[in-house]
Amino acid sequence: MKGRLLRYRGRHALSPRCVGFSVLVYLLVETSMMMLARLDVSQAISNLQRGLAGHVQRNNPQNNSAFQIDLVKQARESANCDEPNTSSGYVICDRLPFTRISCGKLVVEDWKAFVPNVVHFVWLGDPYKMNYFHQYLAIRSVASLQRPTVIYFHHGAGNDVEMTELWRRVLDEIPCVRVIQADPPSSAFGQVLKNPTAQSDFYRLLILQKHGGIYLDLDVITLKPFDWLRAFPVTLGSTTNSIPLVIHICAFRSLLNKISNGIILAEPGARFLQRWVDSYVTLDTIKNKPFSHWGLVVPYQLYETSLDDEIHLEMTSMNRPNPFQDGLNSTTSENFDLSLNFFLHVHPQVFPLTGNEHLYSAREGHVRTMDTTYGAAARVALFGSSDLVFLRGETPFARTPTKTLRDDPPSSGDGTPGEGLLEKISALFHND
Asked: What share of the chain is helix, strand, coil (3-state, %, to 5)?
């Protein structure tokens, strides 16, 4: 397929012929910008080398999956599971095959990434009560699959974290969790941040700008190791479909509506994050915009006007499927293919709209045979694999065929266009 533009992971990838040209142009542009900025040109070369190393790592399936395969194998051996029925997508075990969690300082990396392997979760406002299973899954999944050196849980100063059953499980099972009191800003450039959501949007940028690392919303379930994404100074994910607009060094920059701030990877002192922080100076001048404008629309605008390749954008693997683009049930009772995803952003605000309130309190006994998008992600978080898990003596059934993502307008969840869909969920996602 030499010389042809290939599709890879839901976005346009470099063709073999184009790689050499891209490397040359990238190096020339990056070097020129560094010289103009009076910075060390060697940094541009280092950026390129690490970026290429990440490209090789991502395109080698063994590098991506070997750890996760071994993790699942050990869990199934410990639970005395039969050989999985790969054609039907299930496994039969004596007990539930929970994966081990080995995060912490004992995890040694053999390469140097831009982004520190440090995870940040943020909860501001009312005292935190972990009563929802997806929040437990968010922390467990990144600890088990990504193995960060530390997971920081930032919570509002003066508010304790209540010792619920799920929070006790987090502290007992995950050795690298550290709870720290946050000191969130009440304003940005003199403009009041009206509520904890707005404060959290701004606070997460300040944390990453200073310390670097990985920010995740508490409804983001990690589905596989994502070290490849740490090979870029900044990585974000699109929430909408790709419409090619401008060719950018043999790849496409796209006409996108939004880039989510629910998953952010950044090196300390990232230039893109500083521009993002500086954009909050317009809070007073841009009227009648929800605070989510600076968390969703502004990063896309900055991406489109960026003069360098500091930011890497994932088109579908971080924020799709989602209720905006793929239907209200896309992250719950639908059954989407997640095999190419790094994350599933659950968006539990839609649970009440879709009759899925039971997912708030579902536990491993429910999700082990839940043949849905959410069930698959939950099983990866708990057992390392999306295979259905049956206990010995139960009658197994095969997984139903999964749906693939499409670039159509948002749907209501049953495949038909969702009339008024954005209006229905705008209040849930864009409240100030």
From this structure: 40, 20, 45
pTM of the model: 0.79
**Mind giving me the DSSP string for 116-138?**
-SEEEEEE-SSPB----HHHHHH
pLDDT (tens digit, 9 = 90+) per residue, 154-193? 998 666 788 999 999 999 999 999 999 888 887 788 777 8
State residue 169 phi and psi, 5-degree precision.
-60, -40
Taken in order 417, 400, 314, 19, the sign of the CA dihedral is: negative
DSSP-H helix ranges across 82-215:
133-146, 165-173, 196-211
**Helix, strand, or coil (residue 274):** helix
| Cα Rg, the chain, nearest whole Å | 22
HSE toward the beta carbon, residue 212, CA cutoff 13 A: 17
Closest CA to 217 of 187, 232, 239, 191: 239
Neighbouring-strand partners of residue 259: 238
Residue-wise burial string across 318-334, b where 16 or more C-beta atoms lie within 10 A, e elsewhere: bbbbbbbbbbbbbbbbb
Structure tokens at 102: 């080995």
Calpha distance 156→129 (Å, rounded) = 12
Q: For residue 190, how far is the Cα from the chain centroid? A: 31
* Residue-wise pLDDT tens digits, 42-53: 444 444 444 544
Taking the C-alpha atoms of residue 428 and residue 432, their distance in angstroms, rounded to an integer, is 10
Q: Which of 52, 2, 55 is nearest to 23 (CA)?
A: 52
Specify whether the CB–CB gap between 268 and 117 falls below 8 A.
no
Element (H, E) at 18: helix 16-36
